[in-house]
């Protein structure tokens, strides 16, 4: 009898171990889970957002009458073995790399674009209902992201995509993605365009066109600069002419006043001593008129050198 009960006991112990193994599950702090029974969600564990009841949710949302609205924390949990199972989802940021895509920009240029997104599950219940798993979510994100890229990049020209407004464009793409991903319980954390290049066949042609446009812009800027320089020079010449005219006028006035004062002094000196004044004028004439090597033709009775023959200046 003992020989019969021995194997039976081992079988019972094995079955008990299997039942026990299938009765408990562990949810880590960086995970979130949904307890599922016969394909319907029963409770949500360690979700990042509160569970919304059917009455508070949107119209048309499938009802889960048995759903436990309490958001249990991470750790060890019990489930009914072989009846309930657990779907575990990541709480960390997840990556999604979009395959190389050809985009037509607003200037009708074709671009090869590589992009990726960082996303996370913020509503595991909605995620389970709509996407079911990460593979399904990536399939949905692929279509949404392609549409967002074509919409945003198709409204701007090639230079802005390549270098000009890339940061603003990525924010616009992220906003469109969030609008489309909300119904899947997903939040788009970040979007990055890793590459936006022209096809090899178009690169040279576009480069030449961009070079020509830059040269035209440079020529326009230089022309505007030259026009401004001419205007500034003309204004400066005008101001210089006015200043010189005023200065000449002032100098002539000062010179006239000086000549008047000089003549007055000469007149006074002449009245005081006419002979000395005549002598001084002759010496000044000798100083300014007689130069070395300068021939002079004078008549014998000229008074110019009168003081050389006579101290009184006469002949």
From TrEMBL:
Q: Which GO terms describe its cellular component?
A: membrane
Q: Which InterPro entries match?
A: Band_7, Band_7/SPFH_dom_sf, HflC
Q: Which range is the signal sequence, renumbered to this chain?
A: none
Domain Band, which positions?
49-210
Q: Where in the cell is it found?
A: Membrane
**Does this UniProt record's set of keywords contain Hydrolase?**
no
- Membrane-topology descriptor: Single-pass membrane protein
Pfam families cross-referenced by the UniProt entry = Band_7
- List each coiled-coil range: none
Q: Which UniProt keywords apply?
A: Membrane, Transmembrane, Transmembrane helix
Purpose of the protein:
HflC and HflK could regulate a protease.
Protein family? Belongs to the band 7/mec-2 family. HflC subfamily.
Q: Which named protein is this?
A: Protein HflC
Q: Which organism is it from?
A: Hirschia baltica (strain ATCC 49814 / DSM 5838 / IFAM 1418)
């Amino acid at each position: 009898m003992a020989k019969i009960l021995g194997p039976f006991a081992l079988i019972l112990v094995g079955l008990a171990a299997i039942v026990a193994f299938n009765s408990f599950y562990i949810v880590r702090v960086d995970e979130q889970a949904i307890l599922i029974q016969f394909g319907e969600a029963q409770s949500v564990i360690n979700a990042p957002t509160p569970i919304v009841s059917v009455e508070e949710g949107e119209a048309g949302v499938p009802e889960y009458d048995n759903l436990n609205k309490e958001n249990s924390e991470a750790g060890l949990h019990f489930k009914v073995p072989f009846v309930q199972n657990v779907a575990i989802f990541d709480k960390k940021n997840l990556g999604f790399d979009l395959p190389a895509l050809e985009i037509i920009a607003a200037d009708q240029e074709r671009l090869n674009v590589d992009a990726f997104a960082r996303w996370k599950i913020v509503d595991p219940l909605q995620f389970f209902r709509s996407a079911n798993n990460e593979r399904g979510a990536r399939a949905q994100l692929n279509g949404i992201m392609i549409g967002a890229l074509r919409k945003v990049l198709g409204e701007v020209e090639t230079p802005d995509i390549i270098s000009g407004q890339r940061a603003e464009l990525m924010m616009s793409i992220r906003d469109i993605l969030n609008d489309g991903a909300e119904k899947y319980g997903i939040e788009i954390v970040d979007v990055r365009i890793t590459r936006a290049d022209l096809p090899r066949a178009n690169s040279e042609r576009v480069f030449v066109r961009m070079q020509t446009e830059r040269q035209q812009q440079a020529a326009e800027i230089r022309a505007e600069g030259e026009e401004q320089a001419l205007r500034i020079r003309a204004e400066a010449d005008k101001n210089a002419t006015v200043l010189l005219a005023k200065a000449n006028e002032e100098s002539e006035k000062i010179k006239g006043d000086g000549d008047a004062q000089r003549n007055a002094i000469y007149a006074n000196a002449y009245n005081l001593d006419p002979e000395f004044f005549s002598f001084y004028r002759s010496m000044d004439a000798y100083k300014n008129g007689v130069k070395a090597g300068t021939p002079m033709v004078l008549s014998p009775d000229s008074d110019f050198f009168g003081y050389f023959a006579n101290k009184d200046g006469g002949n």
